[in-house]
Each structure stands twice: as structure tokens, then as C-alpha cells.
Amino acid sequence: MASAASKLNVGAGRVDREKHVFVVCTGQHCLKAGSGELLSDLKHECRHTSAEVRVGASGCLGHCQLAPAIMEDGRMMGVVSRRRLQLELSRLGLSSERRNLNRH
Ligand code: FES
């Protein structure tokens, strides 16, 4: 777990933004299971965040039984629905619909 101090690059005279990396599998199984929509949702949701977010696509991540699969900051997420992705983005403070999710 990163401490608050580790997120701050005080010695260099600047404060680093929080960083996240998402890699969406666009292999055959994951595409059939909807990873294309997940990739679009991620790109859309992360457009206006103040955090540094990188969203990319990859060939098969080797977890086809968990399609659609996404790697989030090095952690495998499997059987990801659009709703689950929204909740995860909300948890990370990256979703533009965060307020809407909190109402339900
Ligand atoms: S096709 Fe996505 S993990 Fe294999």
C-alpha cells in the first residue's frame, strides 16, 4: 500500500498525480464477451480525470476463461461487466458517474 508521502514527489518540487494503468484484453474470447465496449467505456470515463490514467489494449492475456479480462494496475480482473467496471472506476475516483452510483 502506497503511503501518502510516496505519492508526493516533494523532493523534485512537484506533486505527482495518482497514476493508473488499464490494459483491456482484445483477444478473440474477450472481444466476444464485450471487451470492446469496456475499452470504449474506459477511454470515455477517463478523459476528464485529474489522475494520470493510461488505457491500452492487448492481445490475449492468458485468462480466456475469465473473459472479458482487464489488467488494472497489474491486477487481473475477470468476468468484467460494464457495471462492474463503472463501480471500479468509481472506487478509484475516476468515474464521471460517481455521484449517480452513490444514489443507488
Ligand atoms: S482472449 Fe482475453 S484473456 Fe484470452
Outline:
This protein has a domain at 20-91: 3-Layer(aba) Sandwich (Glutaredoxin). The protein has a 4-stranded mixed beta sheet, covered by helices on one side. The longest helix has 11 residues, at 35-45.
Task: Explain what this protein looks like in three dimensions.
With about 100 residues, the chain is α+β, with helices and mostly antiparallel strands. It has a domain at about 20-90: Glutaredoxin. Helices cover about 35% and strands about 20% of the residues. The protein is built from 5 helices and 4 strands. It has helices at about 5, 30, 35-45, 80-90, 100-104, and strands at about 20-25, 50-60, 70, 75. A 4-stranded mixed β-sheet has the order 2-1-3-4, covered by helices on one side. A hairpin with a 2-residue loop joins β3 (about 70) and β4 (about 75). α3 (about 35-45) packs parallel to α4. The chain is globular, with a radius of gyration of 15 Å. It starts with a helix and ends with a helix. Residues about 1-15 and about 100-104 have low confidence and may be disordered. Bound molecules: FE2/S2 (inorganic) cluster.
Which terms would index this structure?
four-stranded mixed β-sheet; Glutaredoxin; alpha+beta; binds FE2/S2 (inorganic) cluster; 104 residues
Q: Roughly what fraction of the amino acids lie in strands? A: 15-25%
Q: Based on helices, strands and strand pairing, what is the structural class?
A: alpha+beta
Round the mean pLDDT to the nearest integer and report it. Answer: 83
Please describe the biggest sheet, giving its number of strands, its sense, and whether it closes into a barrel.
4 strands, mixed
Kindly state the percentage of residues in helix: 25-40%
State Rg. Answer: 15 Å
Bound molecules: FE2/S2 (inorganic) cluster
- CATH top level of the domain at 20-91 is Alpha Beta
Low-pLDDT ranges: 1-15, 99-104
- Reported CATH architecture of the domain at 20-91: 3-Layer(aba) Sandwich
Instruction: Compute the number of strand runs.
Output: 4
Q: How far apart lie the N and C ends?
A: 29 Å
Q: What's the order of the H and E elements?
A: HEHHEEEHH
Report the CATH topology name of the domain at 20-91. Glutaredoxin
Shape: globular
Specify the CATH homologous superfamily of the domain at 20-91: Glutaredoxin
Count of runs of 4 or more consecutive helical residues: 5
